[in-house]
Amino acid sequence: MEQVVPQDYWKSCPGSSGTVLFVDSAHIFHRGQVPIGSDRLSIFFDYTSRMPKYPYYCKTDFSIQQLIALSHPLCSHKKDCIFWNTKLIRDSL
Q: Largest CB tally within 10 Å, which of 7, 46, 80, 92?
């Protein structure tokens, strides 16, 4: 990354336990640092449109089978939100 963007432009966002960051990271490189001294837990929430401008960046870590299992009790509208880019699978639910 240093070959593309000088470190002078990097922004670190440290915080104490319980710190919450809201970041629009769609057009920037981002990563967390390796924990020092002890483990660190984190949770990430991602939001996107069903018609995203850049669908390449809208990926899930869940398999199709996991998404189907998780979506089973949901209404059609919510399933449409989960399966916005997988029409054939959505239609088979």
A: 80
